[in-house]
Specification:
The protein has 223 residues and is α/β, with parallel strands linked by helices. The chain is built from six helices and eight strands.
Length: 223
């Protein structure tokens, strides 16, 4: 079961995070960045999901930079956008790097949902990760100059109203080496059972594909 921990960012900032570890030796680690709502209980559940698959997982509270324990309701998207907008790239990357250090030694992946996926995309370019699992990153199609420096897979629903298919097509055209999985009928935030857009079948497939991908990438890293 996930626990709240304290993580030291690479610039010395102290932040809270959810962490969950498998019962056996981990296959590797994964840092998971939250959506605009902040470090919800759902993010602790996501860490548990990864731990059950054999990975140590940390989800940092990025909003601790401005106000500790900031969490927005799912009907408070404007406040969530404002919270992310108050952060700098340097702050986010320092928090992410601190979490990655807490998961090493061993291979570590970067992941994120929605706007967290957007910043996971940036982190995959700016920081040393062995793999990236991007879940419907909201701004990636607008940040095509950013290029991940590690093997990357992405997940989008074909009914996503935040990133329409023309945006996904643009991402793929700019990054032909990236595998993008499309989920028919799924909208934005389909992995979250606390939101009305949840799609259980698409979520299960996203997880199985992501686990298989990380197992393959981490095994290659160990050779």
């Amino acid at each position: 079961m996930s626990n709240k921990i304290s993580v030291t960012a690479t610039d010395g900032h102290q932040l809270h995070a959810w962490r969950s570890d498998p019962d056996e030796a981990p296959k590797g680690g994964i840092v998971i960045l939250h959506a605009i709502y902040g470090l919800t209980n759902h993010m602790g559940d996501v860490c548990d999901i990864w731990a059950k698959q054999g990975f140590s997982a940390i989800a940092p509270a990025l909003y601790d930079r401005t106000a500790k324990n900031t969490v927005h309701g799912y009907d408070q998207t404007d406040k969530g956008r404002d919270s992310y907008a108050a952060l700098t790239k340097e702050q986010i990357l320092a928090d992410v790097a601190g979490c990655a250090e807490a998961l090493r030694p061993g291979p570590v992946a970067i992941s994120g949902f929605c706007t967290g996926g957007s910043w996971a995309w940036v982190a995959a370019q700016e920081l040393p990760f062995e793999a990236s699992v991007n879940c419907y990153g909201s701004h990636v199609h607008q940040w095509l100059e950013v290029k991940p420096n590690c093997p990357t897979i992405m997940h989008y629903g074909d009914s996503d109203w935040v990133v329409e298919m023309k945006g996904v097509d643009a991402i793929q055209a700019a990054n032909p080496e990236v595998t993008i999985h499309i989920y028919p009928g799924a909208g934005h935030a389909f992995f979250n059972p606390e939101q009305v857009f949840h799609d259980a079948d698409a979520s299960a497939l996203l997880l199985s594909r992501s686990v298989e991908f990380l197992e393959s990438q981490f095994a290659a890293h160990a050779q």
